[in-house]
Design a protein that fits this description.
The chain has 6 helices and 6 strands; from the N terminus they run βββαβααβααβα. The radius of gyration is 15 Å and the shape is globular. The protein starts with a strand and ends in an 8-residue tail after the last helix. A hairpin with a 2-residue loop joins strand 2 and strand 3. The strands form 2 sheets. The protein has a 4-stranded mixed β-sheet, with helices on both faces. It has a two-stranded parallel sheet with strand order 5-6.
Length: 170
């Protein structure tokens, strides 16, 4: 398996490492150093060959910018490397419409496992593609935003605001 990669800069998230295959995006994480990125991706894809691709990265940056703006409805995701449970949870998460949020418990109900909200939270914490598998749309019961691995709670709040799920900040 070949994974192409590049560093992207996306507003409001900042610099991210992106990895993709011929099937779609498979990795999107905050910008650690390259050795950390390689180590992280090797844990999920131990046999992958990593190939740097700045031109492909520029295309993904443009596509993700359009997705963030709501002008592109969907982009390809490569689900290989996920466990069946992770895939089930993240597929359900991806179905949450732009501008809406669900609680971890509601997401557990969506997958037919209403007592699995903690396990769902664990999957959200390990989400390899936090924008396209939009875990920022998953909040705690009662509406508290909770943590967001792609830049913390302020970025999660800003993404939800951009999508119309929160009133604009003053």
């Amino acid at each position: 398996m070949e994974i192409r990669f590049a560093v992207l800069t996306l507003d409001p998230v900042g610099e991210l490492w992106a990895g993709w295959t011929d099937q779609g995006l498979c990795w999107l994480v905050p910008n650690p150093d390259e050795a950390t990125f390689r180590s992280q991706i090797a844990k999920r894809y131990p046999r992958a060959e990593l190939v740097e691709d700045e031109a492909g990265g520029a295309r993904w940056a443009a596509d993700l910018t359009a997705w963030l703006a709501g002008t592109v409805a969907d982009l390809l995701v490569d689900y290989r490397g996920l466990t069946p449970f992770e895939r089930k949870v993240l597929t359900a998460c991806r179905s949450i419409p732009r501008g809406e949020v669900r609680s971890y418990g509601e997401l557990a109900q969506m997958i037919g496992q209403p007592t699995a909200s903690r396990a769902v939270g664990g999957v959200m914490a390990r989400n390899p593609i936090p924008l396209l598998l939009p875990c920022h749309r998953v909040v705690q019961t009662g509406g508290k935003l909770g943590h967001y691995g792609l830049g913390g709670t302020p970025v999660k709040e800003r993404l939800l605001e951009l999508e119309g799920a929160l009133p604009p900040r003053r």
